[in-house]
Amino acid sequence: MFTLKYKCQWVAILVMVGLMALSQGVGASMGVLLRSIRSVGMGGAGVAHPDAIGAVVNNPAGLAHPVTSTEWASHSLTPDFEGGNRTVVRLGSLGYANLSVGALPQQSVIWAYGRRGSRWLDWGVRAQQWHNGGWSTDFGVVAHVSPHFQWGAVISKWIQSQPVGPSTGQVGLAWVGDNQEWVWVLDGESTPEQTWHLSTGLEWQLASDWWIRGGVNASAWTAGMGVLLGVVMVDYAVQKEPHLPHQHVVSIRWGGAPIMTSSEPF
Q: Among the four residues 113, 134, 195, 249, which has the most C-beta atoms within 10 Å?
């Protein structure tokens, strides 16, 4: 017989899968697809604490902790636009992602690699081919300062084959509770206008296979949740900006830890 816990899990799964089905044939933003669903649910923050997928699309330094994982994600805006989706494959310290947005797909492809620089420092590099044929490279680091504190940084579009957008930088901090029962992240991102946008979020582990998330950034509030069923992780996030419709993101992932573990004992 199903316990109340597992009944609630399956209700959550059905709701998230339903949102995924509704998201087909609707609008998407390449910007949201360039973050993990976990990060979207926490205000877009998470540079200092990437998960298995965030290591490919957020901060490649997270690839220094080898896992094998595959994810499919779908993002929606309103029924008036065409759909967007993302496929991510991670094999050990290597990562690949294919992002597609719009009726005449604006496709982007990512290759990434990460490595341990020392017992406390991880680094990674990412190459991205954009829909206009140009490509750019990003560089990221994560420093494990203590078992409960990490900081990270990413330089985006550091090198470009042709103009694909201005170079930007992100720095982030992460505070991690005992047994990673909670994670608080705070990011700052530079803009072409030479200003900084802040984002922050909190993830709380309700049970061994349940997570809830919430966050805010300069233009939106966000919320999300994750449910782990064996080796399958289902994540959902919603983002609401003023005067714009809700944006929904749903993903199904096979393999990989729910969140990135810390470095070796200090």
A: 249
Looking at residues 141-168, what average pLDDT do you find? 89
For 158-211, what is each residue's pLDDT tens digit? 888 877 778 889 999 999 998 889 999 999 998 777 788 999 999 999 988 899
Query: What is this structure's pTM?
Result: 0.82
**Nearest CA among 62, 96, 102, 109 for reference residue 81:** 102
Dist CA 97 CA 34 (whole Å): 10
Comparing CA positions, the residue from 209, 214, 212, 198 lying closest to residue 232 is 209
Q: Name the residue with higher pLDDT: 109 or 103.
A: 109
Query: How far is residue 199's CA from residue 61's CA, in Å, rounded to a whole number?
Result: 20
- Please name each of the domains of the chain with its CATH number: 26-208 (2.40.160.40)
Tell me if 76 sits within 8 A of 83, measured CB to CB: yes
Q: What is the rounded average pLDDT for all residues in the chain? A: 81
CB 54 within 8 A of CB 30: no
E-strand spans in the chain? Answer: 67-76, 84-92, 94-101, 106-116, 121-129, 135-146, 149-160, 168-176, 182-190, 196-207, 210-217, 221-229, 232-240, 247-254
- Give the CA distances from residue 200 to residues 91, 118, 239, 242, in Å, rounded to whole numbers and listed in that order: 29, 28, 13, 18
Q: 11 φ, ψ to 5°?
A: -65, -45
How many other CB atoms sit within 10 Å of the CB of residue 46?
A: 34
The 10s digit of each residue's pLDDT in 206-219 is 988 899 999 999 88
Query: Who's near 47: CB < 8 A, 6+ residues apart?
Result: 58, 59, 140, 152, 153, 154, 170, 171, 172, 185, 187
* 156 vs 30: CA distance, rounded Å: 15
